[in-house]
Amino acid sequence: MTFAQGWHPVALSTSVEPGSSAGTHIDGKEYVVWRDNSGVVHVWEDRCPHRGMKLSFGFVRGDHIACLYHGWQYDTGGRCRYIPAHPDLEVPTTITVPVFTTIEAVGMIWTNAEPEASRLSPPMGTSETVPVRSLYVNSSADSLLDALRANLPSAFTGQGEPSLVPAGDNLWRIATGDDRLIVGLQRLGDDRASLHIVIEGPGSIYGGAGQAHFLGWTAKVRYALEHGQAAAQVARAEAV
Ligand code: FES
Predict the structure, then answer these.
(1) Does 227 contact ligand 1 (Cβ within 6 A)?
(2) 126: phi > 0 → left, psi -120 to 50 → alpha, else beta; which?
(3) Exposed end of the chain (fewer CB within 10 Å): N or C?
(4) pTM (2 decimals)?
């Protein structure tokens, strides 16, 4: 699935605080994720139209983001509203940054490049989630999914075999014992991917020890992936 199709998770909601910005990738292209001071999150192309500086290096000022280089300021619609070197200039409406439909659901930030994205079904959320982590790895998204399938977590509460089922665009659900997790897959590039992982349920049950339980499991996924890659490299080297 390319960025031109469907919903893509780009971060855990808790990792982008009001007044902050961060750079990310989808399919090798650069995007800025930023949250304005009223709490609304935005995903844009990470390139200032003036001289190409990354907007993720910029500063959030209320409901504007300002470029680090020459201070041009953009409103939440991506339109340039202020140029410090020409403070009295009425900025041409053509100076804009490409912006993408962005929502928050299931404790994650999701974006969609389709112009009619609002008519699509976004990933459905539950009332409460507890963040586990974003796991970034140097491998393809398919290899990461294979490692996930082969290393599902044990339960924190209850008992029962774990299972993994697809639940939407780049979205999976894990059931293990009485626990339910939600996993968003971000395809950063050909050889880089990320899992954004949350627990469905209240912080009163899963905060602290529950988070630590599943955090430990993500380390096992990473180990299995890296160990598998090393084994594959040895096998390839021996085959030459
Ligand atoms: S490059 Fe962004 S304001 Fe000049």
Answers:
(1) no
(2) beta
(3) C
(4) 0.92
Query: What are the CA-CA distances from residue 38 to residues 17, 18, 58, 236 (Å)?
Result: 10, 7, 18, 53
**What percent of the chain is modeled with pLDDT above 90?**
84
Tell whether ligand 1 has an atom less than 6 A from the beta carbon of residue 91: no
Q: What is the pLDDT of residues 149-208, one digit of tens each?
A: 999 999 999 999 999 999 988 999 999 999 999 999 999 999 999 999 999 999 999 999
Compute the average pLDDT of residues 3-29: 94
Q: Of 48, 80, 86, 97, which is best to mutate to test ligand 1, by the most ligand atoms within 8 angstroms of its C-beta?
A: 48
Q: Is any ligand 1 atom within 6 A of the Cβ of residue 97?
A: no
Task: Report whether residue 174 contacts ligand 1, using a CB cutoff of 6 Å.
Answer: no
> How far, in Å, are 99, 172, 225 from residue 148 at the CA level?
32, 11, 9
Structure tokens at 31: 């995007």
Per-residue CA distances from 105 to 1, 10, 99, 156, 173 (Å)? 20, 12, 19, 23, 14
- Torsion, Cα of 13, 47, 122, 199 (10° steps): -20
Tell me the two tokens of residue 4.
Answer: 């031109």
Residue nearest to atom 1 of ligand 1 (CA): 51
Ligand 1 pocket test, candidate residues 45, 46, 54, 67, most atoms within 8 A of CB:
67
